[in-house]
Task: structure prediction
Amino acid sequence: MTILRLQDIEIEVERKAIRNMHLSVYPPDARVHLSMPFFLTDEDAKSFLLRKWQWICRSREQVLRQPRQTEREYISGESHYLFGTRYMLILEPITTGSNSVTVQGNKMIMRCRPNATRDNRRAQLHEWYRGHLRTMLTGLVNKWCAQLGEAPVQWTIKYMKREWGSCMAHKRHLVFNLDLARVPVECIKYIVVHELTHLAVQNHGPAFQELMTQRLPNWKLLRKQLNDFIAIPVK
Result:
């Protein structure tokens, strides 16, 4: 991965075993990413980016206009999400017993020690999210592997700043972003199918898009719903 800078915008350039260039702008920070064949030069990349400059600027403006939550403090009164549903976080100090997080009606109750720091509360909530997401992904991955005729895969959950998921096709290993616990289940399904499709096609070119359409006809609508979702906090 290399970085090209054009008119104060940094563009990530990744060389892959592909035949054409592919340009993307990713939320939430309007990151610009260019995938290109190994045989092309940096000058080829600059020429391509200049031809696409108006599209890049327009796409970045659209991404940056999307509403985003402020940084979470994990205190009472904040809004937090589980699978697309918003809850009000309520802290309940405890002096005995175990820390816990439960949902009661429209409230997310976090029981923790009175001296718990922001990082402590964040870790507690993230561990709770991890458990729920692991259960959800177990069902979805198994279902879609069977539906697509794929052999079982290995997968893990971790927090990622820039990607909802990733696929190491040669290892048949998928990685899912912990923040998926916050988004609607239909969007999680889209990411599962997306990463499983990368086992067959390792780029986002026409072949990948055609296969995604065969497997999940409304995938573009789900991708937009996911990228527009305002529940993802700024860390």
